[in-house]
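ARCHIVE CARD
CATEGORY: sequence design from structure
SOURCE FIELD: tokenized fold
FIELD CONTENT:
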């Protein structure tokens, strides 16, 4: 549970923050903030957690991890309060709102910590109550830059509720006791809860990966029967004189095994065309087997990586580090990407998406790309659509365009030529062919790109695949 107002008062009394210098600000996650303070030769890390069910502030004696990328509110605090001095830190009545007054040079700021489980926030104002920035922006409450926040005006009118200071096990001050307690039992930020979230997240990923591997192994088994298709083609070619167009079956001797074999025919095709159809299926199976084996190898490597990662995370003893790692893992695959069809490549900050067939091409066009995204397709060859997701204010570099071009040609019927022409244009310049097959589009304002397939580039791209 969150700290009550009496416990907050005790925390502030023990810490005696007035006179402390703010030396550093770390926001390890969207709901966790730490102020590194220094006073009279002693360093203190003040932890502020807005986590529902575990809202609190207290000194922490555990390392607070840095975020992988700077967060907006932390950057604002660094520009305003770092190297400032705390002149006051008090709770407003019994309202669980802490006001920290800060002075840096001639500038004065108020940082309000509202530790309500259902509406926690950190709000920074000037000394007139004008909001400069907030940790959680809420237009409905008026908690945005330029708004007004003066909780002192309503704190006295709130009814006082009676609470008792809880007794926690362990040695040390109250701050030390609650720091240890919340690490183990602090609701969503406790080790127990975080480890359970980690298990669910990784078990879900491993389960989906296992199902994907099972499907790939079924494909592998089917493709391994490709030699039978070649045998059927050979048998039909050796017995063309016995087959007549219109026949639905051919029954004869399999000279590979000396057994009787019954081969299905297409009555609308000539005997030779039926044999060639089996040869074509054989070649597809042969190439498909190689691709499937490679995908299985990648899947099994990813499976081992996830299992090792799970073991490492479950062994982590610092809940703040585990919380950060969990948030990072959740951001690896965005919700909208989980069900996205096709193949996704993350390359130098750019996202490239490949639709492998007409259905995936159509689905991507309808639901997953926008007008400013770039579309590429092999000219004069059926094959994949490749999309480069646009980035605000950025022009697609030539190197990324060549990456996408290699993918477009590699996943087309022109792959075996080693080179070919592509056209590309923005998605907004595509229009669907009226009454055309699924996924067929007619481009306008397209440009031409000649691409030579580079094996080294494709290998590098394979390392950038974010899906199995």
């Amino acid at each position: 549970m969150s700290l009550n107002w009496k416990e907050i008062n005790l925390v502030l009394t023990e810490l005696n923050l007035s006179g402390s210098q703010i030396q550093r600000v770390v926001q390890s996650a969207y709901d966790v903030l730490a102020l590194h303070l220094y006073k009279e030769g002693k360093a203190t890390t003040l932890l502020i957690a807005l986590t529902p069910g575990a809202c609190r502030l207290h000194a922490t004696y555990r390392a607070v991890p840095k975020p992988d990328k700077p967060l907006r509110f932390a950057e604002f605090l660094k520009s305003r309060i770092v190297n400032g001095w705390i002149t006051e830190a008090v709770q407003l009545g019994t309202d669980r709102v802490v006001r920290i007054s800060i002075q840096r040079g001639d500038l004065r700021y108020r940082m309000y910590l509202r530790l309500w489980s259902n509406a926690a926030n950190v709000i920074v104002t000037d000394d007139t109550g004008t909001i400069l920035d907030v940790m959680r922006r809420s237009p409905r409450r008026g908690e945005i830059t330029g708004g007004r926040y003066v909780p002192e005006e309503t704190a006295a009118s709130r009814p006082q509720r009676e609470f008792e200071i809880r007794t926690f096990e362990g040695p040390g001050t109250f701050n030390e006791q609650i720091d240890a307690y919340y690490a183990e039992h602090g609701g969503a930020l406790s080790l127990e809860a975080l480890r359970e979230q980690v298990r669910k997240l990784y078990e879900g990923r491993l389960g989906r990966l296992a199902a994907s591997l099972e499907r790939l192994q079924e494909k592998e088994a089917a493709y391994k029967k490709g030699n039978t298709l070649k045998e059927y083609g050979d048998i039909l070619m050796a017995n063309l004189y016995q087959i007549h167009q219109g026949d639905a079956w051919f029954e004869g001797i399999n000279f590979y095994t000396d057994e009787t074999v019954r081969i299905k025919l297409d009555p609308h095709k000539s005997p030779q065309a039926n044999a060639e159809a089996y040869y074509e299926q054989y070649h597809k199976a042969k190439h498909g087997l190689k691709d499937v084996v490679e995908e299985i190898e990648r899947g099994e490597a990813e499976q081992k990586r996830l299992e090792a990662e799970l073991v490492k995370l479950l062994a982590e003893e610092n809940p703040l580090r585990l919380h950060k790692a969990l948030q990072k893992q959740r951001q690896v695959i965005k919700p909208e990407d989980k069900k996205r069809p096709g193949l996704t490549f993350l390359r130098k900050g750019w996202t490239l998406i490949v639709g492998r067939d007409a259905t995936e091409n159509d689905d991507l066009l309808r639901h997953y790309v926008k007008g400013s995204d770039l579309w590429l397709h092999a000219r004069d060859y059926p094959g994949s659509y490749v999309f480069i997701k646009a980035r605000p204010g950025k022009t697609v570099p030539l190197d990324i365009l060549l990456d996408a071009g290699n993918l477009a040609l590699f996943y087309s019927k022109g792959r075996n030529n080693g080179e070919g022409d592509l056209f590309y244009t923005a998605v907004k310049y595509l229009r669907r062919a009226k009454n055309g097959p699924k996924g067929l589009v007619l481009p306008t304002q397209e440009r031409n790109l000649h691409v030579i397939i580079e094996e080294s580039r494709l290998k590098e791209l394979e390392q950038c695949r974010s899906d199995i």
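CARD ANNOTATION: The radius of gyration is 32 Å. The chain has twelve helices and 19 strands.
SHELF: design records, drawer C
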